[in-house]
Design goal:
The chain is an all-alpha fold and 201 residues long. The chain has two domains: 3-118, no CATH class; 125-200, no CATH class. Helix content is 63%, strand content 2%. The protein has ten helices and two strands, in the order H-H-H-H-H-H-H-H-E-E-H-H. It has a two-stranded antiparallel sheet with strand order 1-2. Strand 1 and strand 2 (158-159) form a beta hairpin. Mean pLDDT is 76; it is low at 177-181.
Length: 201
């Protein structure tokens, strides 16, 4: 059995852009284009086309090639996964579990889960105040917010994941309100004063 017959496709992705581009064609030309797309995507057969239909097929062909490459890579991974499974006598291999007939779906799910896990939403000053009140720690919410806002809500260059944990750190380091920090000025201190005070502790 050849590698091509092993990797025979039962489906492929037909994009809206293919359909939209074909609207300017006559019915007969459109039918020829769709038939050529299906023949190439499923069986890798190139149909003879002329005129506008030929030009449109040439624009579509690179996308069909890219999708077939993804499909073939998925089949190779699946075959390797099944060999490892037979040798190790495992019930399921991780490689096989991750292989999907449509590799695009698998890739998109992985990207979405990664982006959700890294998502950080910076808190409002009210959220910080409420959390500090809940913990009764007297941390100055505005100083806290200004401090991390100036750093893009990053810790040593890495995106912050849990601002509440940072509040607890401030609480442990005794970064209190301006009065408890013994600022001489009765007015609210500037960000620079707060920062200098932290450096000098």
């Amino acid at each position: 059995m050849t590698n091509q017959s092993q990797n025979k496709r039962d489906s492929f992705i037909f994009y809206r852009s293919f359909y939209d581009a074909s609207k300017c064609l006559k019915t007969e030309e459109k039918a020829q284009l769709f038939d050529a797309i299906c023949s190439y995507a499923l069986d890798e057969k190139v149909e003879q086309l002329e005129g506008t239909a030929y030009g449109m097929f040439q624009l579509v062909k690179p996308q069909l090639d890219a999708n077939r490459k993804r499909f073939n890579n998925g089949c190779i991974k699946k075959q390797k996964g099944s060999k490892k499974e037979a040798k190790a006598k495992q019930t399921k291999s991780k490689i096989e579990a991750n292989v999907n007939v449509n590799p695009n779906v698998n890739e998109n799910l992985n990207l979405e889960s990664k982006s959700k896990s890294k998502l950080f939403i910076k808190p409002t000053i009210d959220e910080i105040k409420n959390y500090c009140l809940e913990r009764k720690n007297n941390v100055n919410a505005e100083s806290f917010s200004n401090y991390y806002e100036a750093r893009g809500w990053k810790l040593k260059g890495i995106q912050m994941k849990d601002w509440k944990a940072c509040v607890r750190t401030w609480e442990g380091n005794d970064y209190k309100t301006p009065k408890q920090n013994n600022f001489t000025n009765n007015d609210r201190p500037s960000f620079y004063d707060t920062y200098q005070h932290i450096l000098n502790k």
